From TrEMBL:
Any GO BP annotation: methylation
Statement: the UniProt record of this protein carries the keyword Secreted: no
Gene Ontology terms for molecular function: methyltransferase activity
Bias (Basic and acidic residues): 1-16, 82-96
Name used for this protein in its record: SAM-dependent methyltransferase
Leader sequence residues: none
Taxonomic superkingdom: Bacteria
Length: 424
């Protein structure tokens, strides 16, 4: 998982503290999808997603639009992004194998306290400006969402129940994703009228960014993560009264940088790592949109595992680590990531680079066939002897109706586990 610097001739990272990296190499995240790019976009969507209408396959570069707009239909579909994060499923011509991971570390001491199950809920977040988000309705394998000025329909396998609102409401959606219904399936967008511009403005937790139509049904932000972002924001702001230095946040598989911008705006120094240079470019567009170029963010295009291995050797330390890994992905040099193979080693490395004043370690897992207890017990073993508490469960979206003020059914989106240093 959703945020780099240029390598110099000696293999070092050329860094910049003002968020302008020397170069922008851009779902590694939910940065990588389960299928390589080039997978065919089948027309096996539910019947509600098919039919006449304006279709759109967004371009990877695409127009840069800062306000809702109608735009021309691009000439060709995207074929190089997965799980909503570009270029992650595409294997470069030159591949570099993932270096062997060190043996699993056997941490000693008592396991942290635990709290399970924990359900973290995202409800309507509108900021009162029409630029926020809420889940309007869901059912019959679909979900209807409000993203800023647009109502959008996308596949949702978890929505097994019938729709709550009339079909006439769903039929008035501004954009409908059609095509492969898999999480990382490739497809097209059908619009109510003329094709919309590729991007549009949004605002969550006082942070501006661009929503974006991609060829893999994702739209540049994962709103269920708002629960984690609020927690990070609260922790960073609270630490200002007890620390002489800013909180240091590491955002691995950072995608389009919304979490990084929220943390930096709250007062943190942020290092944002993603293997997709296109995602890094989008993140920097979001930074520019909010006139936030002076925020202390390092945008680093690198394989997440290699980066944290180097950070351990350097003796670097972070107070909060966010990690949102994909089930499968490739780094910028073709490094292969497999969640079940690499997650234990990645968490070991994350623990190793937590600072002595650490606040928390947050893990989110999408599209995996596992219980949250799997990552919960892994997190507790990884944090043996560290004290604190591990809480794990699911991230959910709560239906809120057309106006965003009518709480309805809960839609599960992902699993999470997080270690919190202070067991309050």
């Amino acid at each position: 998982m959703k945020d780099r610097t240029k390598r110099d001739g000696k293999g070092r990272d050329a860094k910049s503290r003002n968020g302008q990296s020397a170069s922008a190499k851009g779902p590694g995240s939910r940065g990588a999808g389960d299928k390589p790019a080039g997978s065919k976009g089948r027309s096996d969507a539910p019947a509600a997603l098919r039919g006449p209408g304006k279709a759109f396959s967004p371009s990877l570069s695409g127009p840069k639009v800062s306000k809702p707009a109608r735009g021309p239909r691009p000439d060709a579909p995207i074929a190089t992004e997965a799980k909503g994060r570009p270029e992650q499923g595409h294997a470069p011509e030159t591949r570099e194998a993932m270096p062997p991971l060190p043996p699993r570390r056997l941490w000693t001491g008592d396991k942290p306290a635990e709290r399970v199950p924990v359900i973290l809920e995202t409800v309507a977040d509108g900021n009162g400006e029409g630029a926020g988000y809420h889940l309007i309705d869901s059912g019959d394998g679909l979900k209807l969402e409000q993203y800023g000025p647009y109502r959008i329909v996308r596949p949702e396998a978890q929505a097994l129940w019938p729709k709550g609102l009339d079909e006439a409401v769903w039929a008035r959606a501004d954009a409908v994703f059609t095509g492969d219904t898999d999480e990382d399936g490739m497809g097209r967008w059908r619009f109510l009228d003329a094709p919309l511009g590729e991007t549009w403005p949004m605002r969550l937790l006082d942070t501006d960014f661009l929503g974006r139509f991609t060829a893999f049904r994702h739209v540049g932000v994962f709103p269920e993560q708002l629960a984690h972002w609020r927690w990070v924001k609260d922790q960073v702001e609270a630490a200002k009264t007890r620390r002489a230095r800013p909180v240091r946040v590491l955002n691995l598989f950072g995608y389009t940088g919304v979490a990084s911008l929220i943390a930096a705006r709250a007062g943190a120094e942020v290092t944002h790592v993603d293997a997709s240079k296109k995602a890094i470019g989008w993140a920097r567009e979001n930074q520019a949109l909010g006139r936030a170029e002076e925020l202390p963010i390092r945008w680093i295009c690198d394989d997440a595992m290699k980066f944290i291995q180097r950070e351990e050797r350097r003796g670097s330390g972070y107070d909060i680590i966010l990690t949102d890994p994909p089930k499968f992905g490739r780094g910028p040099n073709g490094e292969v990531w497999q969640l079940f193979d690499h997650l234990p080693g990645m968490l070991d490395l994350c623990r190793a680079i937590l600072s002595p004043e650490a606040i928390g370690l947050v893990l989110t897992a999408y599209s995996i066939r596992a219980s949250f207890y799997s990552i919960h017990e892994l997190m507790r073993e990884t944090m043996r002897g560290a004290g604190g508490r591990v809480e794990s469960g699911e991230l959910i979206l709560r239906e809120a109706g057309l106006a965003g003020d009518e709480p309805g059914r809960a839609l599960s989106t992902s699993l999470f586990s997080r270690w919190i240093a202070h067991d309050e």
